[in-house]
Amino acid sequence: MKKKVLITGISGGLAHQVATLVPKSWEIVGVGLHTLRAVPNRHIHFHRVDITKNKLEEVFRQHKIDAVIHLALNDNPRTPIKQRHEINVIGTMKLLDDCAKYGVRKVILLSSATVYGADPNNPIYIPEDFPLKVTQRYSELSDKVEFDTYCRAWMYKQAGKIDAILLRPCHIIGSQVKNNLTSYLRLKYIPIPLGYDPMLQIIHETDMARAIIACLKSSKTGIYNVTGPGELPLTEIINILGGIPIPIPYTLGYYALKTSWILGLGSLPAPQLEFLTYPCVIDGSKFRKEFGFEPRLSLSETLLATKL
Question: How do residues 190-226 score in pLDDT, each as one tens digit?
Fold first, then answer.
């Protein structure tokens, strides 16, 4: 019998990319709230299920799940923090409880490099054991840190029983993935903090999907940063994309972004200005070495995906 992998958030762009790369030796079970897009030459056992509800357990009862790829996370800062917490933290708790209860052997969890925070005192390359930072101004980051912290505690508790991997990728961009950075980089006139030009790291959605599949095929466990083909200063990224950088004093920029965001006109919430001001560059060498992973798309190819 084929093994079964459960992909949460199967209706999302990254999850769709992952599903296209799952080896044919695996059956795919997907849960999500939105209509499932067809995956060429693959059948998916789709269940319209909210991971925060007890109905999720019925999926584990119906299918003998061997592995879980957890991608059902809400990354939209316009979603109220209470609702994001319910999905990202409470939903994850219930999912992981079911994984332990029903004998799942492998779990792949997707966090984010933003949990390290953007800070002028950050090291040049942040390793996996660097402390996670929370700012009260950035509620989305606080939510991600709580998710990350719970996952690490659960992994420690399940050590020896479940092979679990927690990934912290840099910014994921592409035509299927929708996030605030992609919307920001698609602008013609792009506001940037005056006097700052931090290095940014990006990875294409297809390369990120390949990284996740590499985890599915492996028996390794642990926490890994995942990086793309390199990093570039913010202004150089804007130049490659054909945008026009507009330097704005930090305080003015903060309140301008805050106002435009409240009015529904802005592409970035004001607190994310920190990530356009201070560095948050991660060290992805551990993942590359242990998984033999190298991104296939160049920096320019990855960046141009924002225009699709």
Answer: 888 888 899 999 999 999 999 999 999 999 999 999 9
Distance (Å, rounded) from C-alpha 149 to C-alpha 43?
A: 34
Residue 96 has pLDDT above 90, yes or no: yes
Query: What pLDDT, on the 0 to 100 scale, is given for residue 185?
Result: 84
Give the type of residue at 93.
M
Q: In 10 A of CB 231, how many CB atoms? A: 19
Interval 240-248 mean pLDDT = 88
Do the Cβ atoms of 274 and 113 come closer than 8 Å?
Answer: no
**Residues counted in the chain:** 308
Sorted by where each begins, the domain ranges of the chain are: 3-173+203-228+281-297
Sorted by sequence, the CB contacts under 8 Å of residue 136 that are 6+ apart come out as 142
> Which of 70, 53, 90, 93 has the alpha carbon at shortest distance from 14?
70
- Please name the residue that has the structure tokens 């294409």: 204
Two tokens at 178? 């929708």
- One-letter amino acid of 113: A
pLDDT for 137 beyond 80: no
The residue among 292, 289, 170 whose CA lies nearest residue 237 is 170
Distance between CA atoms of residues 59 and 98, nearest Å: 10
- The CATH code belonging to domain 3-173+203-228+281-297 is 3.40.50.720
End-to-end CA distance of the chain: 40
Percentage of the chain exceeding pLDDT 70: 91
